[in-house]
């Protein structure tokens, strides 16, 4: 039991037991942050889905509450699935979610707080009008789910919601409905957006971001399009289980959204996260004046291991989401500032000189929870050396690379976390710089949970040091367990001239 307790997270949200998946209906109400989530009351695998519920004052410490909604009507008896909250200007909350009916058809349902004077919103009343939406003609009966938070269209002052689906040609898409009372809806003739080849769009999210507001300030979902306001469209792709977003422009007159750059459209371009992160959802926090992102992190354990330990999954640390005003091409995400209140003691390691192939131990005692900030600077000489090999190394891709064991001229460098003294277990988190055929440096940020022995000896033979040879002989891994997913993942990150390479790592058992 002590071992199992050690494996559970301490500051990432987890229910007390059993299976959890998507975050649902996050909102702030009368002094409390509310998190609902997909939960199985009967075990540590997906099924019997209900809405779990927890509240917090600070997005970090949580109080578990009774289930908010359970499958108890013909229209949701196969599961109370994912949904979103909308807070009306008069303070009322409209909770729209998907039900899987007795026939397995996906329908949209409305619930409201049964007692709006209860800040904890413990009881929910499902609408007499349910289901408020059924799949429209041409939409598959099981391809119609996960309504968004509603936004006010400034042109006609009616609410809009989007719902994800796919068409018969496997294009992912978002339908748009107009409503004034959240009970009656009109399907609009145009789609919010559609992208060929991306399949079913789950958990669509749609929200404005500002390129002009002071750093850190977010926008309410209904903030009107205007100067400096962009709209983010996110879809969770059923087929590859990743959350893709794109930044673009929303036209209230047509209720269409178009990406700024068609080459990095939803589902083919940027992701929120390159590790395990799915079915995410944002909400506007009126107190912190910020947009906050929650995402479901499925553990990489096998189903057998999940059942043995009695739980599966956690939620990401909530992240503040902002437009990267320096690049204009991507979002910035950062753990909510409240996480920093958990810091107890600090240790600094200044001015370390990292030589190629070296591993420098950092003594952090026996801590198993860490909030690490590290800044790396590449020496001018090393950067120049990189230029000698101009064109030789590109293209680079974390997942297709040899991981942390694949040495180049300017990488990998970073941290080995959750490592034991002999480095027989470790997880490498690192940067890898590559000079492309165009002579420009590109920066990649990767995590290697499975350190490959595979390396291209011909290309790199001249770089191999004795350290690296030891590494090849003892294939080192993030865990001794052999029944979990171990992969190398990551992405390129935009780094502007003169910027340091900094990393924040939260270790939570
Ligand atoms: N999870 C829910 C669905 C959603 C999926 C069911 C995404 O509503 O599409 O548990 O993980």
TrEMBL record:
**Ranges of residues in domain Glycosyl hydrolase family 32 N-terminal:** 12-335
Q: Which GO terms describe its biological process?
A: carbohydrate metabolic process
For molecular function, the Gene Ontology terms on record are: beta-fructofuranosidase activity
Q: Which UniProt keywords apply?
A: Disulfide bond, Glycoprotein, Glycosidase, Hydrolase, Membrane, Transmembrane, Transmembrane helix, Vacuole
Q: In which compartments does the protein localize?
A: Vacuole
Please provide, in alphabetical order, the Gene Ontology terms of the cellular component aspect for this entry: vacuole
Family membership noted in the UniProt record: Belongs to the glycosyl hydrolase 32 family.
What is this protein identified as? Beta-fructofuranosidase 1
Q: Which residues of the full protein are shown?
A: 118 to 626 of 626
